[in-house]
Here is the input.
Amino acid sequence: MGFGACNLALNGMDFLINALSKASLLILSLDPDLMGIVLLSLKVSGIAIIIATAIGLSITFILDLRDFSGKNIAVTIINTCMGFPPVVAGLVLYLLLSRSGPLGFLHLLYTPAAMVLAQVVLATPIIAGLSYAAIVSADPAIRFTALTLGATPFQASLKIIRNTRYAILASILAGLGRVMAEVGAVLVVGGNIAGYTRVMTTAIALEADKGDFELAVALGMILLLISFILNGTLYYFQKKEA
Here is the structure.
């Protein structure tokens, strides 16, 4: 039993080392299939985070600038949506975009546009919620001083946003990290079509299921590198804010 277990462990290590070496060769050779999946992932998530940032910061600005009945409820809803299950978001969008759904006439289902929409839905609450939390926790003296010096409420809000810019940038990076690692929603609305809607996370799931561990490991290594860069940048901005 001891020798058998040892042999199994050695075989497992050989398998892991072999997969890592082949995956590294795929990355170094800039394999066309690999690069196509990576570039599509970056394109979809990049467009999604730009749209989500525009919407999220607009929501943040409105919440900061105006007092209205139901504001606390609105903030609660945003905070709740920050943890919105991706698969549920994908299911809702699928029902909306399917041929028999209310938005079926747009023919967006199983397209990159549907994937962008899914990621926008997931990233927007994160950006809005974290940005608003940063603005609320800012020193009240900033707004008071600006208003005392003759600034309008709009200008005072801009001043606060300027002073919390690193925290806001951190919220954007947090949203980007969420969508880059997302698989459920984009799989449901994108269909994981090779060369069209297959991104890194969905490709890893498919290739691992097929037993093509080289491509799956290569994509995993790239995704981990991107995650490391995002988290390093996020930490930098958080330290700047502190």
Q: What stands out?
A: The radius of gyration is 22 Å. The domain at 2-241 is CATH 1.10.3720.10 (MetI-like fold). The CA atoms of residues 65 and 157 lie 6 Å apart.
